[in-house]
Amino acid sequence: QVQLQESGPGLVKPSQTLSLTCTVSGGSIITNNYYWSWIRQPPGKGLEWMGAIRSSGSTYYRPSLKSRTSISRDTSKNQFTLQLSSVTPEDTAVYYCARWNAGVDYWGQGTQVTVTS
């Protein structure tokens, strides 16, 4: 059973960089052809796919966020990380990590991130 767990600060100040880590257990992030993804849901809005890192190491980003987003991984820890720079209050959301395999088949529980001064 694959499990994903997000971790990181719940409060970030405007203009700073948001950094979240997803720790994966029960499966390797470098095997098969999965896309390890970050998805967020702002309050009162729908889910928004932000980007992903493929098992091969290739990265993919939502065009509207590409200039501010970076996804990387630490294969020794079986983790992948999201960095979102220059945050504003509009980046306040519940952030999820997930595994995409012709659709999301595993989700993390989500972590609330609030951007506030």
Provide a descriptive summary of the structure in words:
- The protein contains no helices and eleven strands.
- By secondary structure, it is mostly beta strands.
- Helices cover 0% and strands 52% of the residues.
- The radius of gyration is 13 Å and the shape is globular.
- Strands 2, 4, 5, 6, 9, 10 and 11 form a seven-stranded mixed sheet that branches. Strands 1-3-8-7 form a four-stranded antiparallel sheet, with no helix packed on it.
Helix and strand topology:
Layout: E1 3-7, E2 11-12, E3 18-25, E4 35-41, E5 48-54, E6 59-61, E7 69-74, E8 79-84, E9 93-100, E10 104-107, E11 111-115
Parallel strand pairs: 2-11
Antiparallel strand pairs: 1-3, 3-8, 4-5, 4-9, 5-6, 7-8, 9-10, 9-11
Brief rundown of the structure:
The chain has 117 residues and is mainly beta.
Largest sheet: 7 strands, mixed
Low-confidence stretches: none
Which class do the helix and strand fractions yield?
A: mainly beta
Number of strands: 11
In DSSP terms (H or I, runs of 4 or more residues), the helix count works out at 0
Mean pLDDT figure: 96
Distance between the termini: 39 Å
Helix content: under 10%
H/E series, N to C? EEEEEEEEEEE
Rg calculated over all Cα atoms:
13 Å
Shape verdict: globular
% residues in beta strands: over 45%
